Amino acid sequence: MTAPAAAATGDLKPEEKRVIFASSLGTVFEWYDFYLYATLAPFFAALFFPKGNDTAALLSAFATYAAGFLVRPFGALLFGRIGDIVGRKYTFLVTIVCMGAATFAVGLLPTYETIGWLAPILLVSLRLVQGLALGGEYGGAATYVAEHAAEGRRGFDTSFIQTTATLGFFLALMVILGCRTGMSTAEFADWGWRVPFLVSVVLLAFSVYIRLKLEESPVFLKIKSEGKTSKAPLTESFARWDNAKVVLLALFGATAGQGVVWYTGQFYALFFLLITLKLDFQYTYTLIAISLVIGTPFFVFFGWLSDKIGRLKIIMAGCLIAALTYFPLFGALTHYVNPALEAAQAKTPITVAATDCNFHIFVGPWSKFSDCDKAKDFLTKSGISFTSTELPAGGPDKIVTKIGDVELKGFDAKVYAETLKAAGFPPKADLAQVNWFMAELILVIMVLYVTMVYGPIAAFLVELFPARIRYTSMSLPYHIGNGWFGGMLPLLATAIVAATGNIYNGLWYPIGVAVMSLVIGLLFLRETKDAKVRVDL
Q1: In whole angstroms, what is the distance from residue 285 CA to residue 490 CA?
Q2: Which pTM value belongs to this model?
Q3: Could you tell me which of 315, 256, 249, 330 has the C-alpha nearest to residue 513?
Q4: Rounded CA separation 445/396 (Å)
Q5: pLDDT tens figures, 120-175
Q6: Which of 53, 264, 305, 460 is placed for a possible disulfide with 268 were both Cys, Cβ 3.0 to 4.6 Å?
Q7: Going by C-beta distance under 8 Å and a sequence separation of 6 or more, which residues neighbour residue 71?
Q8: C-alpha–C-alpha distance, residues 402 and 348, integer Å
């Protein structure tokens, strides 16, 4: 923990410490449940979707991953309303039970090989339950902690809630890594993948026990005793322009940019190492895990700093720096993790000329894949950039691929693989060539961006809205920003890469959103650190 953070903890009352610990621990476990699937999404592509097109299956897995994020705002509306009417404590008790039950059920699901398309349907259904639960969890935990925090220390106190998503991700990585290294590949594919989901029932029981010990928020108790709670929090939050305007500005000027920076620095970096650069999973997980361990204390640091200098300028600075540096950072990752791939790409240009290419995002039984789609899929999953051109109409061929001076007509996976190998394209990263220090440094830098935008965001959102509708009002922009703008990132970025043929083009999505938030945030949002939230205990 940083020096200022350590000093600040000495000022915490025992009640504040207990609230922070209990709320944060339960939220860590809930994020663990939610991110198990996210971490295993590339693996689930082979379990729950038909074989034959790896990128299509991966897009399907990412679409299922995204489904849990897309439904989060609806959970925010449902549970936010309950939280503003019934209370903070009991609402996030319900959310954690829903999350834990859905996660446990994923561990019991039959795969595509057993029951066909019913398998992904059931998987999507459980992801929707998880998303609804998480939509109600975060707003409740952040509001609950903020309403206990002393004035002048709200950024610091709520920053512990901000560590929970990263710690939950870290816990998921470690449990999965333990399972995958503790059993054979065949055992993990057969039944071992279920273990991380099934053990979540233990975390669920522990979390419920801890949260039952908590008291209701003093702010909520006060407004309830005075008869000032809202009878229609949805109407007050979104049907009245004075508050709805703040919700929209919070979304487009803060949480959207924060969401894409969060998911780029942690999940997209993970998938880029694993899928594009072909680094073995145990090394990928370890690199990401180390960056999370190094970076996590900075959530608390930037929360503490936001109490001193303000929330908004730190969030905006994170969006700006991320937008300016993502392309060079991901290019450097390629250079330091798989230099042979970088060298082969520079030496051997690749073009795909075709007449029957399609753009796929949501893949299902209705999807049809041409030779062009299969060829682009093969190159994309190999981490190789290519240039797309049009073939002259009326010719005998539908696709002609040039790998250097070699011209390939039609698509044959074996021929493509042999040609790429002969041209010097590596099938996976050579561990002897990886610059581990520089790769880790780049990942830590991206996690630091995450801590800048995410550390102060809970306090910022809580302070924007009045207590009577706070749970509802803050939850919606948070979960649209993170669930829709952030959660859709792996799916959209992967689709953009497959469509354009450039392994870095997926970064245009988070950069564009971060710049949008930067402009709107600077022009229209106000600083909130001096807002009054707490009532005296």
Answers
A1: 17
A2: 0.84
A3: 256
A4: 51
A5: 888 888 888 888 888 887 777 888 888 888 888 899 999 998 898 888 888 888 88
A6: 264
A7: 127, 128, 131, 132, 135, 483
A8: 10
